[in-house]
Amino acid sequence: MYRIKRARSVIHSLAHHAVSALSFLHPRLGEECLQSGLTEVKFDLIAELITGKEFKGSKETMSAYNALKATFEQILQSEGMDLSCIETASINFGFKKDSWPSFCICTMTGLGTEPIHIKVDWCGNKYNLLSEC
Prior knowledge:
This protein is an alpha+beta fold. It is 34% helix and 23% strand. It has helices spanning 4-19, 28-36, 59-78; strands at residues 40-44, 49-51, 86-94, 103-110, 116-121. Helix 1 packs antiparallel against helix 3. The protein starts with a helix and ends in a 12-residue tail after the last strand.
């Protein structure tokens, strides 16, 4: 069953995991984005699509993305939900001049509900609340 409080917990946990070294995406994802001239890349966790003009992820990056998707599903299950109650779910990484993300936005929409957004900085803090980690 989809509950907004539980959904917030899911995407908040996912955002923290995604900016940590545990996700295995960084710094490789950032390096590939910088090489492609991109400042942002977005992963759709339901449709398994990557959006970003001309982003070509390496095999390792795609493997890390699949692990992130599996982590998302595990977090959903720990909160008593599954993919059947989710309409959309995505994660967006933004890069400035570094290979580590400067921000991460997780978005999730339950069936018939408004989207929920969580934005964290590279340390996992709510974005723009603290000037530096």
